[in-house]
Hints:
By secondary structure, the chain is mainly α. It has helices at 2-27, 31-110, 115-164.
Amino acid sequence: MSQIDELQARITAALDRITKGLDGREAAGDPAEMVKLRQDIEDEKLANAQLEERVRTLRERLEAREAELEAARSTQSDSLRKLDADLQSLRKANQQLRDNNQALREAHQAGVAEPHLINKSMLAELEGLRAARAADRDEVEAVLTELGQVIAEAGDDTATKTEDA
């Protein structure tokens, strides 16, 4: 047991000497080198902060762009729904016009003049023209919206390239 205590004391003393030697070495280090190392650490911290700021800026730009794209998708989807509804209305009006024209042809072949069929046919034709106009207008609006998005993207790309340069 005394040998264990003696060995433990020797090990403790050796560890103390090693610790003192390391402390002395650190204290005896080249002050210019320590200043340079500290400056290098500060430079790296600054570079890291700048990179983090740039990543944050890029992330914000990405989120803003994603929000713009989602809004554009929503607008485009609404435009397509409206265009589809107008096209359905146009198809319905054209079918009604065809039906009325068929009835007029049959009445004409029978030699019967039916003024209400003529009025009905004219109303169907007017409705068809209105539906065609609405469909054309919606189609033009959809094209203009898409062109606006392309122009905006081109402007954003130019601004991004200018910022990156």
